[in-house]
């Protein structure tokens, strides 16, 4: 390990949810390489939430320890408020403090909207959005008390831009952006920051995408070029004290590209001194705004170039 890299997070304690595989694993390893003590949380379940009998959290802990780092395995569920509290309490009891929370745990239930069941919608909201709230809410008093802390949440271009067959996932991931901004605003005075990252990577989550048609095959081949380990350096940098003044932002990482995303602001206005009627809105406002309406893009329509 590079000595400068080892010192970047020296003395910090980090929690990474969903850290047994993919992006979460690479983030946990990178945080440890930067000097942080890491709580590796993973339920060890399949994409749809079924138990697999595996203990991926233990495997990642072993990897960190073999590299000379300190780590603790955790198998609590982010989807349960009490278990989230137990996760945070366990981290603080074991390592004495908590400085960084990376909300990475996720699941998928991809179904086209008019066929999506309530269970399929609720299951994804529960893990992604409610899970992010549960963990963040449990950590917030600890961060407030010590006057510092960094929340890093995983959003997605599926939520920021759109995607087919993912109404549950899109809603959850855009909800996380709003939650991150609210945390940033509410906790700014306590020295606590909150940011969101849209990671581009080939993981178990996206490996479930169908590849039956030629178009789908091309899309999948492009996604396979996206390397999970490329997300980790940005997470380490954002978690460091060098980023202590960065909060309420939405970033993206796509291999060697880093993005700062825009946030909703008015792009056109229409005003009348007489007040609007439905008829005058139809006659004047819709035509005025038409050129600035956003097309129904999905993520792949916006990010059309090969990852570098």
UniProtKB/TrEMBL annotation:
<feature type="domain" description="Ketoreductase">
    <location>
        <begin position="12"/>
        <end position="205"/>
    </location>
</feature>
<protein>
    <submittedName>
        <fullName>NAD(P)-dependent dehydrogenase, short-chain alcohol dehydrogenase family</fullName>
    </submittedName>
</protein>
<dbReference type="Pfam" id="PF00106">
    <property type="entry name" value="adh_short"/>
</dbReference>
<dbReference type="InterPro" id="IPR057326">
    <property type="entry name" value="KR_dom"/>
</dbReference>
<dbReference type="InterPro" id="IPR036291">
    <property type="entry name" value="NAD(P)-bd_dom_sf"/>
</dbReference>
<dbReference type="InterPro" id="IPR002347">
    <property type="entry name" value="SDR_fam"/>
</dbReference>
<comment type="similarity">
    <text>Belongs to the short-chain dehydrogenases/reductases (SDR) family.</text>
</comment>
<dbReference type="InterPro" id="IPR020904">
    <property type="entry name" value="Sc_DH/Rdtase_CS"/>
</dbReference>
<dbReference type="InterPro" id="IPR051687">
    <property type="entry name" value="Peroxisomal_Beta-Oxidation"/>
</dbReference>
């Amino acid at each position: 390990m590079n000595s400068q890299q080892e010192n970047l997070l020296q003395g910090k304690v980090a929690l990474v949810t969903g850290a047994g595989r993919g992006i979460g694993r690479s983030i946990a390893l990178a945080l440890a390489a930067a000097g942080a003590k890491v709580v590796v949380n993973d339920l060890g379940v399949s994409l749809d939430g079924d138990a697999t009998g595996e203990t991926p959290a233990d495997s990642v802990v072993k990897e960190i320890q073999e590299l000379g780092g300190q780590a603790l395995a955790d198998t609590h569920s982010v989807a349960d408020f009490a278990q989230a509290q137990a996760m945070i309490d366990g981290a603080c009891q074991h390592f004495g403090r908590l400085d960084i929370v990376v909300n990475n745990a996720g699941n998928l239930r991809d179904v086209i909207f008019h066929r999506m069941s309530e269970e399929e919608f609720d299951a994804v909201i529960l893990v992604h959005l409610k899970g992010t709230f549960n963990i963040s809410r449990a950590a917030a008093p600890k961060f407030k008390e010590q006057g510092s802390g960094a929340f890093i949440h995983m959003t997605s271009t599926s939520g920021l831009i759109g995607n087919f067959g993912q109404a549950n996932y899109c809603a959850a991931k855009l909800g996380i952006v709003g939650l991150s901004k609210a945390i940033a605003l509410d906790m700014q005075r306590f020295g606590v920051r909150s940011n969101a990252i849209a990671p581009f990577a080939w993981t178990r989550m996206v490996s479930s995408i169908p590849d039956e048609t030629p178009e789908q095959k091309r899309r999948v081949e492009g996604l396979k070029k996206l390397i999970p380990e490329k997300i980790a350096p940005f997470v380490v940098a954002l978690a460091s004290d060098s980023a202590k003044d960065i909060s309420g932002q939405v970033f993206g990482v796509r291999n060697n590209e880093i993005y700062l995303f825009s946030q909703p602001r008015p792009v056109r206005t229409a005003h009348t001194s007489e007040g609007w009627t439905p008829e005058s809105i139809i006659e004047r406002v819709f035509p005025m705004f038409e050129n600035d309406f956003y097309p129904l893009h999905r993520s792949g329509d916006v990010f059309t170039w090969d990852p570098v």
